[in-house]
């Protein structure tokens, strides 16, 4: 199965080698037929602490790095 790649905005870089990325998705509500925006936060591994709050990054699925980290930063 291919690894998923998501794009989002860094919302926190407080932890060492970890960034929190907020990923937004848009879809049409099945009943209301209205476009809805939903966001979800992912914790991603950032080896060199290169990314700061506000950066747009792409993250890719990986093997678990810790209890909460299942993603790593691919690129900016």
TrEMBL record:
InterPro entries: NA-bd_OB-fold (IPR012340), Ribosomal_uS17 (IPR000266), Ribosomal_uS17_bact/chlr (IPR019984)
Source domain of life: Bacteria
GO MF term set: rRNA binding; structural constituent of ribosome
One annotated GO biological process: translation
Keywords assigned: Ribonucleoprotein, Ribosomal protein, RNA-binding, rRNA-binding
GO cellular component, one term: cytosolic small ribosomal subunit
Pfam families from the UniProt entry: Ribosomal_S17
Presence of keyword RNA-binding: yes
CDD domains referenced in this protein's UniProt entry, alphabetically: Ribosomal_uS17 (cd00364)
Quaternary structure, from the entry: Part of the 30S ribosomal subunit.
Stored PANTHER family: 40S RIBOSOMAL PROTEIN S11 FAMILY MEMBER, SMALL RIBOSOMAL SUBUNIT PROTEIN US17M
Function: One of the primary rRNA binding proteins, it binds specifically to the 5'-end of 16S ribosomal RNA.
Similarity field: Belongs to the universal ribosomal protein uS17 family.
Protein name in the entry: Small ribosomal subunit protein uS17
Species of origin: Ruegeria profundi
Lineage of the species this protein comes from: Bacteria, Pseudomonadati, Pseudomonadota, Alphaproteobacteria, Rhodobacterales
């Amino acid at each position: 199965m291919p690894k998923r790649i998501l794009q989002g905005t860094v919302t926190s870089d407080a932890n060492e080698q970890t960034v929190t990325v907020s990923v937004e998705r848009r879809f049409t509500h099945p009943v209301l037929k209205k476009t809805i925006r939903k966001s979800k936060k992912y914790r991603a591994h950032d080896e060199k602490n290169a990314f700061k709050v506000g950066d747009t990054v792409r993250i890719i699925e990986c093997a678990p790095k810790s209890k909460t980290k299942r993603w790593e930063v691919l690129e900016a």
